[in-house]
């Protein structure tokens, strides 16, 4: 009579499958981490550009004239912003309503980074 004993533990196939699944989880985790880091950097840059654009709107809102005069006080002027490369600012006044010459529209455009991204804010001022 042949006596068989049952061994406990993993077989070689089970061990290989387990290692493959663990490697897949590690790879997926690293890819997710990379995406989160990249997206947070882009969000931080957008936030900085947005703050600069809003600051320019507040500064130039007091410069609006009555009657409205279409001008471009800043046109692709290089600016220095921490965390942004190749940053440029454009501020333009337009007169959107011919029937109401006291209303001015202020457009502020900030371009930054490579590849170039744009942040644009506008507001209306009634003097």
Question: What descriptors fit this protein?
Answer:
single chain, about 130 residues, alpha+beta, four-stranded antiparallel beta sheet, about 30% strand
Structure notes:
By secondary structure, this protein is an alpha+beta fold. It has one domain. Helix content is 39%, strand content 28%. The protein has one helix and four strands. The protein has a four-stranded antiparallel sheet with strand order 1-2-3-4, covered by helices on one side. The longest helix is centred in the first third of the chain and has 50 residues. The radius of gyration is 30 Å and the shape is rod-shaped.
What would a concise description of this structure say?
The protein is α+β, with helices and mostly antiparallel strands.
Oligomer classification: single chain
Roughly what percent helix? Answer: 25-40%
Overall number of structural domains: 1
Helix count from the secondary structure assignment: 1
| Shape type | rod-shaped
**Major sheet: arrangement of strands:** 1-2-3-4
Structural class: alpha+beta
Main β-sheet description: 4 strands, antiparallel
Low-pLDDT stretches are: none
**pLDDT averaged residue by residue:** 90
